[in-house]
Amino acid sequence: MLALYVHVPFCVRKCGYCDFNSYVVDDDGAHDRFLAALAAELQRCWPAGQAPRSVFLGGGTPSLLSPERLRRLLAILASAVDLRACPEVTIECNPESVTTEKAAIAREHGVNRASLGVQTFDPDRLRFLDRAHSAAGAEAAFGALRAGGFDNLSLDLMFGVPGETLDEWVADLERALALGPDHMSCYNLTFEPGTHLTHARARGEVDANDEEVDRAMFLHTRQRLAGAGFTAYEISNFAGRGGPCRHNDHYWLQGDYVGIGPGASSHRGGVRWTNLKPLEAWADAALAGPSAVATAETLRPRQRAGEALWLGIRRRAGVDLEAVEHRLGLPVREWFGAAIAEQVDRGLADCDGTTLRLSDAGLLLADRVGAAFLIDDAAA
Ligand SMILES: C[S@@+](CC[C@H](N)C(=O)[O-])C[C@H]1O[C@@H](n2cnc3c(N)ncnc32)[C@H](O)[C@@H]1O
Ligand code: SF4
Questions:
Q1: Which residues form ligand 1's pocket by a CB distance below 6 Å?
Q2: Rounded CA gap, 50 and 35, in Å?
Q3: Average pLDDT of span 315-333
Q4: Ligand 2 centroid distance, CA of 132 (Å)
Q5: Which atom of ligand 1 is nearest to the CA of 119?
Q6: Does position 378 have pLDDT exceeding 80, yes or no?
Q7: Structure confidence at residue 28 (pLDDT)
Q8: Which of 44, 87, 146, 320 has a CA-to-CA distance to 313 between 20 and 30 Å?
């Protein structure tokens, strides 16, 4: 089963912590050119007649498109896939650009899930993060999405912003819960290479938050959201009434997907390719054909098996090793037995021979545990 990712690379402002491929453009003409290039790429890249298991319109900021262009984008997608028949179609939205009108347009075309990027309700932290909205704006946007017909709404928050205290995070989480979201993503802020925030830290202008405070925030989040009826199905993701995000779960299960738009990646059966990243270069190549792909690689068997563990261990249910062996036809336990035993000995993972899962201590070090299974090209 194939999933479809659509990258909409526009934002009203570039947030200082963000390294996603997004652009602030003054000229709306860029939006039209983007849509034309996307239409051409979709026709070429999506297998005709195939029903997607999920569709994700991400960014960037898909909600920034004008109502007319949003309609056009959804019509382009509908020319290749039946959105209304798809079990999950998500759109990422930002508070400063989403409206009831846009939400209703998305719903009409079969979008059945929205993810609203709030990050924080605190005015100082909103400013620190360069966000283009206020706390009241985020709450109004949530209401606009509900009024537009969304009954499956997710909220994104970030914790561990430099200087943030546990009490401040507790207050943010409460204010988010008060809105009644159906799913929540709570990310620990990371300093991504090349971002303004990371440069500011290198200059000594900003200090990373205390690790112990971040740890307390992480543990509080799990406890509080469990109490509110959310299931922690992944390190940063919590399913409420809306259930897990089917699209992201498919990534962690190493599923196949086609990504369109600048810098979007695709994966099919151990072959991975990534589009040209710069907006203009991607649009030129997508419009001219035959392809806007910049790089492609075929994963070696050991890399593919290692990645199945690296991705899957993020899921709270863990990795079903037998299922992975069966799916890939590879001796995963034979190859990775020693690496698994090392993580178990360190108390970071549990393994009963068939399921590999992070321990409670490992949850806090998920990236490090996952990295133990990655194999570089030379060693594959
Ligand atoms: C690529 S953004 C797109 C969503 C939307 N444009 C927004 O700003 O909310 C998806 C999510 O990634 C998270 N994110 C982005 N950069 C991050 C960072 N450096 N550390 C932690 N989370 C980050 C944010 O929570 C954000 O909502
Ligand atoms: S966090 Fe969202 S709004 Fe901010 S720059 Fe990244 S994609 Fe754009």
A1: 17-18, 20, 59, 61, 92, 94, 117, 119, 156, 158, 187, 189-190, 192
A2: 21
A3: 96
A4: 10
A5: 25
A6: no
A7: 83
A8: 87
346 Cα: distance to centroid of ligand 2 (angstroms): 37
Q: Which of 254, 242, 243, 236 has the alpha carbon at shortest distance from 3?
A: 254
Please write the tens of the pLDDT for every residue from 348-371: 999 999 999 999 999 989 999 999
**For the chain, how many structural domains are there in total?**
2
Same domain membership, residue 226 and residue 167: yes
Distance 299 CA to ligand 1 centre (A): 28
Question: What is the residue range of 342's domain?
Answer: 301-379
pLDDT for 294-308, tens place per residue? 999 999 999 999 999
**Long-range contacts: 23-27, Cβ < 8 Å, 24+?**
23/279
User: Do 185 and 58 belong together in one domain?
Assistant: yes
Choice between 71 and 353, residue whose per-residue pLDDT is larger? 71
Mutate to test the pocket of ligand 2, among 7, 12, 22, 187 (most ligand atoms within 8 A of CB): 22
pTM for the full model? 0.96
The CATH code of the domain that includes 309 is 1.10.10.920
DSSP letters spanning 123-146 = HHHHHHTT-SS-HHHHHHHHHHHH
Ligand 2 lining (C-beta closer than 6 Å): 11, 14-15, 18, 20, 22, 59-61, 94, 117
The whole-number pLDDT of residue 27 equals: 82
Same domain for 164 and 228?
A: yes
Q: Give the domain CATH number at 144.
A: 3.20.20.70
- Give the C-alpha distances (Å, rounded to integers) separating 338 from 212, 242, 347, 351: 30, 38, 14, 12
pLDDT of residue 375: 83
- What the block records as the tokens of 85 is 């028949």
pLDDT at 366: 93
- Rounded to the nearest whole angstrom, what is the distance from the C-alpha of residue 18 to the centroid of ligand 1? 7
Ligand at minimal distance from the CA of 12 is 2
* CA-nearest residue, atom 6 of ligand 2: 18
Please choose from 15, 97, 131, 156 the residue to mutate so as to test ligand 1's pocket, defined by most ligand atoms within 8 A of CB.
156
Q: Is 237 helix (H, G, I), strand (E, B) or coil?
A: strand
Rounded distance, CA 3 to CA 54, Å?
Answer: 5
3-state helix, strand, coil in the chain (%, to 5): 45, 20, 35
